[in-house]
Amino acid sequence: MKGKRYKKRSNSFMKNVVILICSQLLIKVLGLIYKLVITNIEGFGDTGLGYYSAGYQIYALLLTLSSIGIPSVISKLVSERIAIGDTKGAQRIFRIAFKFFTTIGFILSLGLFLGADFIATNILNVPDVAYVMKVLSPAIVFVAMSAVYRGYFSGQQNMKPTSVSQTLEQFLNCVLSITFVYACIGKDPYIMAAAGNLSTTCAIIITFIYLLMYYKNNKISTRGSIESPERRKTNKELLKTILGISIPITISSLISVISGVIDTATVSNCIQISLQNANMTKEALEQAAMGATGILSKVDTLVSFPLAINLAFSTALTPAVSEALAVKDKKTASRRLSFSFFASLIIILPCSIGFISLADPILKMLYPTASDGTGVFMIASVSMILTALSQTLTGGLYGVNQSKIPAIAAGLGAVIKFILNMVLISNPNIGIYGASISSLIYQIIVFFICYNVMNRCVNMHIKFRTHILKPVISGLGMGVIVFLGYKLFNNFLGNTISTIISIALGAITYVLFILFTKTLTKDDIMMIPYGAKIYNILVKFGIYREKREPLK
């Protein structure tokens, strides 16, 4: 009976992971499409992308205060209540959280609109960024409300509303961004950037309406709800519980976002400092700073694509681990965490090595009119590995009630990043590369702190040879073949076709390396949806061999 229950939980966990991976892939494809289109529109380029990104980073900072971390918190608390049968308690947690975070979101929306001019002029030193922040300000309150809904449904192990709403939001954002920016062709880059971000606000409002309608038809049934200690708590005490978990998570997320804001603010100011002896006008210095910011934004868009796939494990892991620990099932919690960490490494390694091998060709293929940033892209691709693993560890730490650890790690890393940015970016010989170097060091710090604490809380059973060495060998082997393949194909097929063929070749090569090195064990394959069928096919082709039971 226990085995069946475990199998059901594992299948549910992996089903949620697959749902989130599919939605995140589609979201990132749509995001990449509209970023590619608007960046290559005449008059937009790296400069327009710089305005777009600079304003968005400030918006994202306030967004974190109002909503980031909320889905994880609500998901954790709701899943714990449901696991013991207290459905009324789960519904009560939702109502209290919704009222509180809606109020916070409204205050921050108003604050961003009224403070946009001050921030743009006195912090970013680029006054025209204020237009971008003003059009984004109404979105904050709607994102806060949507975040509570998403956490509520995630706590029920129902990832459909989260995946559908996020995909719908990105689809609308893609269509409207391209439409609005095209409508502003001929105007200044900051006007085009503001028009592109206006689409974000429109898409978020429409998505909120979808979640509201879904909630009305899919509330938790409170029939047969049991009594629990939570029932005796006042609203104030429950809110204190919610904030006790959400504040560390929010601080952790806030510091991660601050990392982006640090780049925006320091690049904007330090690039101008590094060029102060170049006899450039103030307007030219601002344009150069926004161009450098645009390069970072462009690279972040590409790097975030594989990270979005990995985010599925982190998102699904928090309620899955919380549910297992709520019923004292440490073995299941450990297994889910270990598999997620291993799966993250297998997913992110080929993406990172592939990006490094094809950095210049990819940028030229995707951004033919703004292809600068190869070195920045390569450094960011290394950081991507540590970022992905930290995402997974953070989801696990939230599940085992260690939400303060990611905040502490991110805080320490952010301080060091800020100092390094100021020193490195201001140096004319380093410039924009300084932001990527400091980000790499930041991610190293966060990863090692989170890993050490997580491993003390739950034994992760990470084996160096199987879980690290084999994936690294497979990834490096793939990287060599991709690099040489591109060099060969580019002699007679041109950059775009050669790059696409090389990426496809790399994917096939990596899968073959993983299979023939037997990086995945039978148990790992069984964790995957349809794992039994996949394993039987591999046995049939002789790639794996089924162990025979000894005769008694």
Question: Can you walk me through this structure?
Answer:
- There is one protein chain.
- The protein is mostly helical and 552 residues long.
- 80% of the residues lie in helices and 0% in strands.
- The protein has helices at 2-39, 45-66, 70-83, 87-122, 130-136, 139-154, 160-183, 189-217, 235-274, 282-326, 330-357, 359-366, 374-399, 404-425, 433-457, 464-489, 495-516, 522-527, 531-540.
Helix and strand layout, with pairings?
Layout: H1 2-39, H2 45-66, H3 70-83, H4 87-122, H5 130-136, H6 139-154, H7 160-183, H8 189-217, H9 235-274, H10 282-326, H11 330-357, H12 359-366, H13 374-399, H14 404-425, H15 433-457, H16 464-489, H17 495-516, H18 522-527, H19 531-540
Helix pairs in contact: 1-7, 1-10, 2-4, 2-5, 2-6, 2-8, 2-9, 2-10, 3-4, 3-6, 3-9, 3-10, 4-5, 4-6, 4-9, 5-8, 6-8, 7-8, 9-10, 9-14, 10-11, 10-13, 11-13, 11-16, 13-15, 14-15, 16-17
